[in-house]
Amino acid sequence: MLGIETSCDETGVALYDRDRGLLAHRLYSQIRLHADYGGVVPELASRDHVRKLLPLVRQTLADAGLGLADLAGVAYTAGPGLAGALLVGAAAARSLAWALERPAIGVHHMEGHLLAPMLEADPPEPPYVALLVSGGHSMLIEVTAIGRYRLLGDTLDDAAGEAFDKTAKLMGLPYPGGPALARLAETGTAGRFRFARPMTDRPGLDFSFSGLKTQALLAWQASAGDDQARADLARGFEEAVVDTLAIKCRRALAATGVRRLVIAGGVGANRRLRAQLAEAAAQEGFAVYFPRPAFCTDNGAMIALAGALRLAAGQLEPPAIAVHPRWDLETLPLAAV
């Protein structure tokens, strides 16, 4: 199965076999293209996907020692995401499938993230609670089967990754800000800046990080603005976000009675978050699963896996180039493999 990911600013291609696992994967990031703008420019992202996608497909096939005729099907991200970027992947995938007389299937980007831990040697079995945390999402989801998802909590404003990026920008850190802030936090002094753990003092599983971002701005403006203050503030901000995510994860496990926790999405690569949840799991007796950091961010491997599972379950789609920039995860059909 060929998997194609073009939902935003990363072009991902992978080959997955249900018997042999992941055969090859490649990823091209547009970070340098968008750095001067401080964020993703949709039109530039779409144009760069056009330039990079087919060469990446050829390179990934060569890595696996395969040709186009060896493909059993093509999976692509159909949404949610940037409309133009999604259309590049959808058009390429559908064209390849039509020319090769192979099936093609559009994959929900969030489902790809939810299933990414299945690429690892010790994959989780449903039921589990998933924390899907990235630049655009902070969601807690109960997964009882592939395609059976129940939203437990969502962000009311900024997602955790977005709050990381915006806080990094106000402190003058380079793009992309979130990873830069996390690296800087490793050199910061604990306790100098103490921020609220938003919405943890009330019932519920929703998130809100806009107020935390405002607290960080006010603290930065009141500080000396030197390198040590920047590192200490990064440490305090990261601790507040991580504590909030961990508290809500443990609360979701208690509410559902599930004892497996999956962490997915770009912020899932954060070292402090991983360490804190691993420690909590050891102390409280639940299991926690992380994809490798390369599969926390957008990638083709998770799309190839999700597509392979859905095609194996007999899910077929009409041969149309269709994308869904907004797409409710809970509307997906059950995939009984």
TrEMBL record:
Enzyme class: transferase
Pfam families: TsaD
Cellular compartment(s): Cytoplasm
NCBIfam families from the UniProt entry: gcp_kae1 (TIGR00329), T6A_TsaD_YgjD (TIGR03723)
Keyword check for Cytoplasm: yes
Family in the record: Belongs to the KAE1 / TsaD family.
Entry function: Required for the formation of a threonylcarbamoyl group on adenosine at position 37 (t(6)A37) in tRNAs that read codons beginning with adenine. Is involved in the transfer of the threonylcarbamoyl moiety of threonylcarbamoyl-AMP (TC-AMP) to the N6 group of A37, together with TsaE and TsaB. TsaD likely plays a direct catalytic role in this reaction.
Name under which the protein is recorded: tRNA N6-adenosine threonylcarbamoyltransferase
Every Gcp-like domain range: 22-304
Top-level taxonomy: Bacteria, Pseudomonadati, Pseudomonadota, Gammaproteobacteria, Lysobacterales
PANTHER family: TRNA N6-ADENOSINE THREONYLCARBAMOYLTRANSFERASE, TRNA N6-ADENOSINE THREONYLCARBAMOYLTRANSFERASE, MITOCHONDRIAL
Main localization (coarse): cytoplasm
Example GO biological process: tRNA threonylcarbamoyladenosine modification
Catalyzed reactions per annotation: L-threonylcarbamoyladenylate + adenosine(37) in tRNA = N(6)-L-threonylcarbamoyladenosine(37) in tRNA + AMP + H(+)
Membrane spanning residue stretches: none
Residues that coordinate or bind substrate: L132, V133, S134, G135, G136, D165, G178, N270
Keywords: Acyltransferase, Cytoplasm, Iron, Metal-binding, Transferase, tRNA processing
Domain of life: Bacteria
Any one Gene Ontology molecular-function term assigned to this protein's record: iron ion binding
Cofactor note (record): Binds 1 Fe(2+) ion per subunit.
Cofactor(s) demanded: Fe(2+)
Residues involved in Fe cation binding: H109, H113, D298
EC number in record: 2.3.1.234
Gene Ontology terms: cellular component: cytoplasm
